[in-house]
Amino acid sequence: MSKSKFQLVTTSLLALIYIMTSCGTRQAPAKIEWLTSIDSALHIAAAADKPLMIDFMATWCPPCRAMEESTFSQKAVIERARDFIPVRIDVDKQPDVANKYHSNARKYGGIGIPNLLFLTAQEDTLLHIIGFYPPDSLVQVMDSVQNIYRSQSRQYSVFNRLVKGAVFPLYLKKSNFPE
Predict the structure, then answer these.
(1) Is 23 assigned a catalytic role?
(2) Which label site among 86, 115, 123, 138 has the fewest CB atoms less than 10 Å from its CB?
């Protein structure tokens, strides 16, 4: 099996496992289950039809720790996170990812941390927020992102039906024109 087929099979299995474990009861988990691989998360997001919520942080960052302790630990935030594919990127461990998404710490020339980037599975930016957010504010942001995502999904769906399902009248076929 080639490396690309192996990666595709592995990612597909991860997506299936994630989808199966997130189905069923809507009981909130005790904490947010963060992924650490953007590539896997993008595949899972496409399969689950959910946007990504990427938390760029560092262990030495006081506002990042505050977000973890007082925001990401709250029931309402944990419940809303089920509507996203949550990814946590430590900017010290994955600087290439932080740089790719323009989300690095200021000391590395970035915009600052913590910051949350909301993306589609196609890597279109839905929203990018910077700094500490209390639970109520983050829940409002997450709800807004879901509204944007659902709106864009409907627009893409209509577009795809128009383009992919286009039926051309018979008279446009060459065989229908007299020689």
Answers:
(1) no
(2) 123
* pTM of structure: 0.73
- What's the Cα-to-Cα distance from 104 to each of 41, 46, 68, rounded to whole Å? 19, 25, 18
How far is Cα 91 from Cα 97, in angstroms, rounded to an integer? 8
The token duo for 15 is 């997506």
Backbone dihedral angles phi then psi of residue 137, each to the nearest 5 degrees: -65, -40
CA 115 to chain centre: 14
Q: What token pair was written down for 58? A: 């560092």
Tell me if residue 64 is catalytic. yes
Catalytic residue among 64, 78, 117, 142: 64
Q: For 140-170, what is each residue's pLDDT tens digit?
A: 999 999 999 998 876 654 544 444 444 433 3
HSE-CB at 71 with a 13 A cutoff on CA atoms is 22
